Amino acid sequence: MATAIAQTHGLPDLLARVLAGRGVSVQGAPAFLRPRLRDLLPDPDVLTDMPAAAARLADAADRRQPVAIFGDYDVDGACSAALLAEYLRALGCPVAIHIPDRITEGYGPNVEAVRRLAAEGARLLVTVDCGTAGHEPLAEAARLGLDVVVLDHHGAPDTLPVAAAIVNPNRHDDLSGLGHLCAAGVVFLTLVGLSRELRRRGRTDLPDLLAALDLVALATVADVVPLHGLNRAFVRQGVAVMRNRGRPGLAALMDAARLSGAPESWHLGFLLGPRINAGGRIGDSSLGARLLLEGDSLAAAGIAEQLDRLNAERQEIERRAVEAADAEAGALVAADPDMPVVVLASPDWHPGVVGLVAARVRERYGRPVFAFAPKPDGTVTGSGRSIPGVDLGRAVRAAVGCGHAVKGGGHAMAAGATLSADGLDRFRRCLERELGATVAALGSAPETLAVDGALAAGGATPELVAALAEAGPFGSGQPEPCFAFGHHRVCDLREIGAGHLRFVLKAGDGSALKAVAFRAVGQPLGAALERARDRAAHVAGSLTVDRWGGGERAELRVCDVALPD
């Protein structure tokens, strides 16, 4: 297949091999390499309740009604709120945005905020990246005379709240097949439907939706949804929009993140997303949406600098919490090596970093992890991260259903929950019942690493990296190409930064390749590299371009290492 792809389309052999390894056919290669919205955008009406949502939003635009947007405090929530607010304001609607405080309000709409928004004059409430399970707050909205439109993508309960429309590709009666979209993707499709409805009504002064793809791309990458189909087009075209630096807030954030070159998709997840998230984790949760909507470059620079400072603070808070969590998890796993899920808690942890703590511990122990921290109201709030094949969101919804969690929900790979002060053990036992068999079955399967090909150090060049980038964007469900470097010597191994390892791979012909293993110190990968120091080893990883100092050099990001038999 790889040979046929290369010969038919005149592609480099290695790129063709990568495409074939991802199941791309000879006929499908051009479309895969150039994902376009015009080819992949579905009719918005395939989403359940979309006609009702578009009609109610069109009514608000026609009447210039005050609209309140209730978002989530993460990147997807900020992008979704900004995307919708920017469009409605361009149509003349007064728009207020409320992003809840993670600690005092928690996730999703709440009764007090709904009452405040109604008192401020809102006639339509739109929840973005939340609301599918908000029965009580949405009932209060109806009592106050507010119409509600929900634009969400989280797992849905069996019984939905009452609303004018609930657009969520993951509700049980939705047959669109678009459950892989993030909330901003759902909002974008809603705006496509709204634009069509407004054109039917004779409106011609419609905003340019393509100019807002930078927000959809950022949310899609940061929310770690699968980069399949439409999502690939969102990211590919959205990153191209971002490179024009037309949005003052994102331009300022790129400057604050010291991103001097053209942004690539991985920058969205590793540089820009964490800074927007920092506001919701340990600072002002509204900062992200405010930055994305800010039209003044000077004001945007001030918000971006504030988020950059908060991100640095978040990193230190996270570092201390991860150290404690790793020690606690190590003791638990040592006592019960077969435990299916690790549930951790500490009164010293900041609620804003528990998801990051869970992610780090999951990386080390290879099983689902939940981390909890106390809230001022006496409850504990937690965030969990799962492993492929284990639906953590479903397990949390089951815990809510049987009374072992006050509230909770999420995706297969990430979920959140709020517990009573004495509910930790009950919640742990519930997760063990729900997930035990699945985790045990996965644990008995041998671990494998998919490799796209073998290379020598001398063959890793910036030109090769550029050619492979044509298969992108890379991310969740679309991993970067991975290559094996066999019998290369590990030289000049040293620790840099916060637990990273840098070294040089040297081939038998004398060619060399710089390599880095992120967060490897104290992990199995770091221990394996130490054993391989100054020895020949098999090393696997993905290639990138290091532009430090003005030049361009290929660099290997290491994911695995093994000593020859």
Explain this structure:
The protein has 565 residues and is of the alpha/beta class. Helices cover 44% and strands 17% of the residues. The chain has 20 helices and 16 strands. The strands form 3 sheets. A 5-stranded parallel sheet has the order 2-1-3-4-5, sandwiched between helices. A 5-stranded mixed sheet has the order 6-7-8-10-9. The chain has a 5-stranded mixed β-barrel with strand order 12-13-14-16-15. The longest helix has 39 residues. It starts with a helix and ends with a strand. The mean pLDDT is 94.
Structural class: alpha/beta
Number of strands: 16
- Note the main sheet: 5 strands, parallel
> Major sheet: order of its strands?
2-1-3-4-5
Fold topology:
Blueprint: H1 2-9, H2 13-21, H3 29-33, H4 37-40, H5 50-63, E1 67-70, H6 75-90, E2 95-98, H7 111-119, E3 124-128, H8 135-143, E4 147-151, E5 165-167, H9 183-200, H10 213-222, H11 230-242, H12 248-256, H13 265-282, H14 287-293, H15 297-335, E6 342-345, H16 354-365, E7 369-374, E8 380-385, H17 392-401, E9 407-410, E10 414-419, H18 424-443, E11 453-454, H19 462-468, E12 483-496, E13 500-506, E14 512-517, H20 524-532, E15 536-546, E16 553-562
Parallel strand pairs: 1-2, 1-3, 3-4, 4-5, 6-7, 11-12, 14-16
Antiparallel strand pairs: 7-8, 8-10, 9-10, 12-13, 12-15, 13-14, 15-16
Helix pairs in contact: 1-2, 5-9, 6-9, 6-10, 6-14, 7-8, 9-10, 10-11, 10-13, 12-14, 12-15, 13-15, 14-15, 15-16, 17-18
